[in-house]
Amino acid sequence: MFRRWLPFLLILALAACTASPTPEPTPGPGEIALEEQAVYTAALAELYGAPTYVILSTTATEPGGSGNTAETLAFVLDNLPAVDPLTAEDFSRRNAAETPLADDLQLGAPYALLTRQEMSDLFAENQNGWDTFYAQHPDAPGITSLSRAGFNPGMTEALVYVGTQSHWLAGAGYFLLLEKVDGVWTVRHQVMTWIS
């Protein structure tokens, strides 16, 4: 009787060995939002380590938010080693348009969101806009812009833009490549894309 079942058992065993692996589940919006906040926290700590931040309320990939993201990203990918193409693709997709930032981000430090109109009003009043800004936010490194983070499918790699203008002719913008190891995001590489 065993011999009768042997071919059937062999077929089952072979089928089990050659079955394709179960794909990783696609992260939901809530999980992506939490990972994005963790990426922001790691990036801000790496670049500034400030006790407080003032962040533009909409995402950007360059100062003023009106540049050519595709051209900038091409430069970044030429200068950042080993970015997963799917991470870069996700970054492009998620930054195709400006997006409002949530007002309840967990960034590991207090922050205030500043709209572009509020920023324009602050600096249109007089030439002392930065003096007024720092009187209100003495511990901030300046006005910081964040992009959406792009992730690889396993959410172990992230690409994000962080830029800060700290005075009329003082500021810089960076693209950072982060890696998640043992549940912690760490900046592995960065490329400066502008300085003033």
How would you describe this protein?
It is a single chain. The protein is an alpha/beta fold and about 200 residues long. The protein has one domain. Helices cover about 40% and strands about 25% of the residues. The protein contains six helices and seven strands, in the order H-H-E-H-H-E-H-H-E-E-E-E-E. Strands 1, 2, 3, 4, 5, 6 and 7 form a seven-stranded mixed β-sheet that branches. It is globular, with a radius of gyration of 23 Å.
Label this structure with key terms.
196 residues; single chain
Helix content: 25-40%
Strand runs, count:
7
Structural class: alpha/beta
The backbone outline, from C-alpha atoms, is: globular
Order of helices and strands: HHEHHEHHEEEEE
How large is the count of helical segments?
A: 6
| Unreliable segments of 5+ consecutive residues | 9-23
Q: What count of structural domains? A: 1
| Mean pLDDT figure | 85
Biggest sheet descriptor: 7 strands, mixed
Percent of residues in beta strands? 25-35%
Kindly summarize this structure in a few lines:
By secondary structure, the chain is an alpha/beta fold. It is built from six helices and seven strands.
Write the layout of secondary structure elements.
Blueprint: H1 2-18, H2 29-47, E1 53-56, H3 69-79, H4 85-94, E2 111-114, H5 116-124, H6 129-136, E3 143-146, E4 150-151, E5 157-167, E6 170-181, E7 184-195
Parallel strand pairs: 1-2, 1-3
Antiparallel strand pairs: 3-5, 4-5, 5-6, 6-7
